[in-house]
C-alpha cells in the first residue's frame, strides 16, 4: 500500500516536472494568436560581423515567427566600430555575439563589462589556417619562411606560436604580415600573403566555391585546449537580472531557429538569403550544409557550454601570462537561460 502511494506521489511529481519543462518554452503561449507587434517586447540583437551562416538560426527564428511566439519583437543590427560587447554592456542592446577569446578583457580586469556569455552558437572552434594547396603549409611547421596575415593580437600570436612549436617548428621563422584580410580568395591568389586565419564555414568554403585549392589545419586538432567557444551569445547582466523570463523566452526561440537550420539547411539558407539578399548564394548554400553539422555537433542540448572546455582555454591564458589578472574557473558564462 505504501509502495502504491509512493508511486502515485512520484507520478504527480513527474507530471508536474514535465508540465514545467513543456511550458518552459512558450512564454506567452496563450497570447500567440493575438500577438500584435505593438504588444511584443522589443529586443535588440547585435551581430559580431556582417551577416553570415553563423547567424542563420537568428534569421530563421525571425522569419518563422519563433520570436513572436515568445512575445518578442527582435531587431537585428550590425556591430558598431567598438564591437557588440560595448553595445550590449551599455544596455542599448540586450543580446549580441562575441567569441570566448576576444571577449577575455571584458571578463576580468580593469575593463570588465557587465555582460555574460549565455549560449554557444557553434559547439567547437572551427577556425584554423588556410593556405594555397601544395606549398607545405598543411601543418603548422610549414609556416616557417611563409607570410602569415596577422591581426597582431597577443593571444592570436601565442596560439600560432604554440601550434607551430607543438608541430616541431620555429615560430621566429614565420613572417608576420599585419593585415586584416576580408577576401581570402583574392589575398591567396595574388600572393599578398601565404596563410590566413579563417573560420572554415565561411572563409574555407569561400575558397572551395571559387575553385581555389587550399590546405587547411584547425587549431583544435593540434592542441585540444584551443577547442574553445566561438561564436557565442552575450547578454547584458542587468537585463538578465531584471527580466530572466524574457531572456529564457529569447533562447527558446533562438534554439528553435538553429534546430530548424540543422534539420533544413537548404530552407534555412534561403531564409538567410531572403533577409540578406546581397550575400553570395553559392557560398551561403555550401556553408549552410557544412555548418548545419557543427551548430550542436555531438552535444544534445543546443547552446550548451561545457565548463571543462571553457576553463581549459582560460587556464591556458593564465598559465601563459596572457591576461593581466588570472581568470577564475567558471567565470563569464552560464547555461542557466538555455532550454533543456
From TrEMBL:
Keywords: Signal
Top-level lineage group: Bacteria
PROSITE patterns: PROKAR_LIPOPROTEIN
Coiled-coil intervals: none
This protein's record includes keyword Iron-sulfur: no
Residues annotated as domain SsuA/THI5-like: 52-268
Residues in the signal sequence: 1-23
A GO BP annotation: thiamine biosynthetic process
Keyword Signal appears in the UniProt entry: yes
PANTHER family for the chain: 4-AMINO-5-HYDROXYMETHYL-2-METHYLPYRIMIDINE PHOSPHATE SYNTHASE THI11-RELATED (PTHR31528), THIAMINE BIOSYNTHESIS PROTEIN HI_0357-RELATED (PTHR31528:SF3)
Protein name: NMT1/THI5 like domain protein
Organism: Lachnoclostridium phytofermentans (strain ATCC 700394 / DSM 18823 / ISDg) (Clostridium phytofermentans)
